[in-house]
Amino acid sequence: MRINNNVGMWAIRYLQNLQTHHNSQMQSLTQATVPIQQNVAFGAIAERIRSQINGYREAMMSTYNAIGVMNVAEGGLQSISNNLQRMRELAVQASNGTLSENERAALQQEFSQLAQGIDKVVDQTTYNNRRVLGGDIKDMQVQLGPNEGQRMRITLPGMDIRSLGLENVNLNSTENAQNALRALDSAIENVSRTRSYVGGVTNRLEGAARELSNTMINLTSSVSVLTDTDMARGMMDLIRTRLQQQATAGILGQSNVNALNVLRLLG
């Protein structure tokens, strides 16, 4: 074979080594159907690990359900916060003593619609038929691990107009509008605290979910090693070798090596 440069010579040797490695990997994966599980001790250990995996799987399901609750809550709280901010703007406008009766009535109409909108958001913000912001989430227990004591308790307060202290608020007079401002500031602060709580809980849940996932991967890998060849790792190694072969063949193509000789190397 005539090679026109040193890169081609290196690529030929490297490709030969990759082909040998590829053949070895294929043989290993082919023989992986014969388990090591005939060893009773390994089999018993594997069963215990499988039991642990099941526990982690249940904990992960519980954790992700709780994350779903928190995400739904955050979406509802965002809408409620937007309504409250607009209601406050209206209350500021209504505090102006020079407004006509028609102008004040228009402000009150929009104010009432926004308040009704908050109650509607609360009714529609549900997860598994539970009103997430309607007081249905009280002392909700979340299993963060497979063992006893690895629990988290979550409570979300009601965010409806009555719970926010806005049930009797109106803009019918300058005085009422000023009172509404104080009540709205308190409600906005309440929603802000709840959103901070939801954010903190979500971060903790997501961290727990990552730990559960990593542990499950490690345990699953342990079972695979105990009972059979690590098929996942073996397949990844095989894929990587094939990609290296393709890349090296590309180098050979740029080194003016006869294509027929490359095909012979690749079998």
UniProtKB/TrEMBL annotation:
<comment type="function">
    <text>Flagellin is the subunit protein which polymerizes to form the filaments of bacterial flagella.</text>
</comment>
<dbReference type="Pfam" id="PF00700">
    <property type="entry name" value="Flagellin_C"/>
</dbReference>
<dbReference type="InterPro" id="IPR001492">
    <property type="entry name" value="Flagellin"/>
</dbReference>
<dbReference type="GO" id="GO:0005198">
    <property type="term" value="F:structural molecule activity"/>
</dbReference>
<keyword id="KW-0969">Cilium</keyword>
<keyword id="KW-0975">Bacterial flagellum</keyword>
<dbReference type="Pfam" id="PF00669">
    <property type="entry name" value="Flagellin_N"/>
</dbReference>
<dbReference type="InterPro" id="IPR042187">
    <property type="entry name" value="Flagellin_C_sub2"/>
</dbReference>
<comment type="similarity">
    <text>Belongs to the bacterial flagellin family.</text>
</comment>
<protein>
    <recommendedName>
        <fullName>Flagellin</fullName>
    </recommendedName>
</protein>
<keyword id="KW-0282">Flagellum</keyword>
<keyword id="KW-0964">Secreted</keyword>
<feature type="domain" description="Flagellin C-terminal">
    <location>
        <begin position="182"/>
        <end position="266"/>
    </location>
</feature>
<dbReference type="GO" id="GO:0009288">
    <property type="term" value="C:bacterial-type flagellum"/>
</dbReference>
<dbReference type="GO" id="GO:0005576">
    <property type="term" value="C:extracellular region"/>
</dbReference>
<feature type="domain" description="Flagellin N-terminal">
    <location>
        <begin position="43"/>
        <end position="135"/>
    </location>
</feature>
<dbReference type="InterPro" id="IPR046358">
    <property type="entry name" value="Flagellin_C"/>
</dbReference>
<dbReference type="InterPro" id="IPR001029">
    <property type="entry name" value="Flagellin_N"/>
</dbReference>
<keyword id="KW-0966">Cell projection</keyword>
